[in-house]
Amino acid sequence: MSIWVGRRDGGGLVNSDDARVNVLDHGFTVADGVFETLKVTADGPFALTRHLRRLVASARALGLADPDLDVVRVAVDDVVRANVDALEDNGRLRITYTGGIAPLGSDRGDAVPTLVLAVAPSAAWPATTTLATVPWTRNERSAVAGVKSTSYAENVVALREAHQRGASEAVLANTRGELCEGTGTNVFVIVEGRVLTPPLSSGCLAGITRELVLEWFDAHEEVLPIGVLADADEVFITSSTRNVHPVVRVDDRQWPEAGPIARELQASFDARAALDIDT
After folding, report:
1. Taking Cα atoms as reference points, which of 155, 268, 150 lies closest to residue 212?
2. pTM, whole model, 2 decimals?
């Protein structure tokens, strides 16, 4: 596989075995960076413009210089084209943007930010999925609440817990006991026919698929207790690689099959997404 490695102002493709980032890069030493993950189909990366808009917002939230989107777009084209045969029409593109080389510690320094793009084949998700609620919380008042930061240790721990309990994804509440998000997904519930998801004020990520579901369908933001997962008629999660993914189990609660509204939204989302790769 070829990886694009460089800085905010440029770079190029190298073989994955030769890809190098300085060990003093702030993204490595203190996870001072942001990233985006995009689905790649036969037509290219999906919703690239929306993802790049969020990349800029995340960088600004950390105080990083705006990424040069002209450089990023060229890098996206280069890395996808170089690896197209290996992706088999179902890939994952990762754009990582970090603080660059900096002193050890929290001070950032004045280095040019590092930019790395990599792709990999992505296995198709099963038609339905399962969730486990975990005891840890999202801090909705955190300095990085809602930022797609490379600091993912909390997610790693939470997802490991979910996997140990036989679930595909972990779900976290925030410090107020409200439903927040999964480790890499947004959560939707269906209550009496209404499609609901927590507002961004809950501390959840402004997911791209979440955004599209809210724009395309009759879905609404609403503050929800974490306990809604025990009472909702249906549950589904969304992400850039899962699209709309119906849930058939949350902890000990199980549905015999995906709910009708979630199934309809799943099919409708896939059909609409296929009409415009950069919607």
Report:
1. 268
2. 0.96
